[in-house]
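Write out the bound-state structure for adenosine-5'-diphosphate.
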Amino acid sequence: MRPEALFDYFADIERLPGIGKRNRLAIEKLAGTRTRDLLFHLPTGLIDRRYRPTAAVAAPGSVATLEVIVEEHRPSQNRRVPYRVVCRDASAELTLVFFNARADYLRKQLPEGEVRLISGKVEHYLNQVQMTHPDYIVAPENAAELPSVETVYPLTAGLSGKILRKAIHAAIESVPELPEWQDPSVMAREAWPTMLEAVHAIHHPEGPEVLAPGSKPRRRLAADELLASQLALAIVRDRTRKKRGRPLKGSGHIRERILAALPYSLTGDQKTALAEIVTDLQSDRAMLRLMQGDVGSGKTVVALLAMAAAVEAGVQCALLAPTEILANQHLATIQPLAEAAGLKVALLTGRSKGKARKTVLEPLVAGEIDILIGTHALIQGDVEFKDLGFAIIDEQHRFGVQQRLALAAKASAGIDVLGMTATPIPRTLTLTSYGDLDVSRIMEKPPGRLPVDTRVVALDRIADVAAGVHRAVQGGARAYWVCPLVEESEQLDIAAAEERFASLKGMFGPRVGLVHGKMKGPEKDDVMGRFQRGELSVLVSTTVIEVGVNVPEATIMVIEHAERFGLAQLHQLRGRVGRGSDKSSCILLRTNEIGDVARARLKIMRESEDGFLIAEEDLRLRGGGEILGTKQSGLPEFRLVDFAEHASLIELARDDARLIINKDPNLETGRGKALRHLLYLFERDEGVRLMQSG
Ligand code: ADP
Ligand code: MG
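---
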């Protein structure tokens, strides 16, 4: 159960002043609806109101605070003309401008003949100094109400900075200090403030230094967030390691048959990965390993051989995939090879219903199925194995700890678990997302792959590109056409894709298909299937094809508005082509108004196909302050960590977490109890639950 001291941290923000239904909704989109969400909504900058010039010299464009006498109200007669209030100081006139003004309110705020402090952005208009909708209008006796510096936050429509600031300040006042969980020696060495002091300092900054990622308060909070995640990972690792695994020693006869049936031989990296996995299977400790390999590096066949080794030792295997499409694809790759070697393979997805479902579940519990491939449906309560001994989780970051535990619960004894991911993750980030997991990396591509010819082309040449694709398609080629990502609106993505679909169809005829994220599973699979079989030549899509789709005959990838995609995503998309023996090309269409970072990204794409190098560059480019696009990359989300600036804190947290769990595996000491607060605060409490379940 959540420690009592955290109740206020998780209380709904609606109890804070100024938060009505509408504001709550806006804040929900931005940060979340719990008090803690507001505490961790960090400002992106500062407004400095300490600039106090006279009206005559106030620099246009700057934020200034002026002391003036109110001279005259000039209400407007016409709705399109603003309400003006003329003020002045000793040097010049200052005109205040209000649209849609309420006269009675303005008269009260700005009585003629009285002195007021006015703070806002200075504008020059027809030789006049003016301010439109000043931020503050304060009588001199209330000068204290005017902040000297003020934080600026990321906002959404319908929410003002003032309201958000007020709510955040109230949120800070509403929560108690928590017991210190950081190591006392680290606290002393770094001279860090407490967590709540750090939050306070960042939301009430004395100057811009506090907001820099290198400041003590920022480092303190980043260290907290990192420690929470490292600790959660350390707990999972500790529990898994302590469970005795079953030594799964196979004879090798099924593997031999599969290898004999393969039309190629394994690459060195594939052999090494397989050997590492087989060693883990044979050991009497439970396996917890990640197989990392770029798209097309040949992970699937390694997975199959590993499962064959487990089956040789007499157990059943499960292969869990994040989507229906991927589960189907794994089945298509694995089934022919597995069945040639005498293995029984079945598929179970959310669409397996009624009788179809029964024809899987019955032989599964009878032990007649060796390998079960499936989606989330595989971890439901009524799915029973006779003896599950080995599970592979594809794109493992898409599954939570809960789901992994549910899968493990289907095994009678310690299950061996292998994660797979095609996301090339820089080394520093592997730590943050997977902690100390053993990792097998497949860096080498299967032989015979031709490099993909990557070109960056201006968007205004799209007609030429379409014509080129048309020619290629008439010659029998197959092409992907990925449509622009429109910020935060899947609806708009789809509209753009539908429009492109219509125009390409007009040009190429019926051999064009469309897939997008809002389509139903069967509908999507149908289109993908037709593309796979070659009944469709062009597949227009939003980014749904990103993960794992394998159509070796496809040789052309067109990406519209490539500048809007992240590097990792572009790399994943390009990885869809260059999988067969024919030469492939990737065309990155970009607009002319393109920023430096986007330009650098496209350049890297043109120059490299090495996923790990691209991932490192990606991290470097994101750098300064911008939080990692975790949604895209599938990495866990961090709100307080700047991966470029806080890299050194990652290892610190990892080492600390390891030490803690060695000394105090159940978090029962004084510091251990404090650390439970940390886990809950950062919502890594599945680790705590794991401790309780033993
Ligand atoms: P990943 O799952 O890592 O993206 P796949 O396992 O789908 O990659 O493999 C991509 C393609 O490469 C498949 O068509 C597979 O048959 C082929 N392949 C795998 N290993 C080799 C190899 N050693 N030599 C040649 N082709 C291979
Ligand atoms: Mg694959």
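---
The CA atoms of residues 4 and 43 lie 28 Å apart.
Residues 4-46+161-211 form one domain.
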